[in-house]
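#structure-requests
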Amino acid sequence: MNKNSDYDIEYYQKMDFGDEMERADKEGRLYVSHGETVEEFFKKARARRQAEELRKMYSLRLKVRVVEKIKAKAAAAGVPYQTYINALLEKEVAEAV
């Protein structure tokens, strides 16, 4: 088990959390803050996994100046530029439908 965790996997297996906890430990994402409840930990872990499963990497050829402008706008908004691009694309698709 990750040395940053105080949780006992066997106990949580009985609580139907064991598989999730073992998976998180193997993937290196079993970092539980001391004030965090078990429910909060697993809610976050499941949300992260679902978010990862819902994304797919694509390769696009874009003009450098376009990407530089997007990065600048993303920085001004305080978000990672790929998140910003995703939001722009989602908005465009939603408006087109």
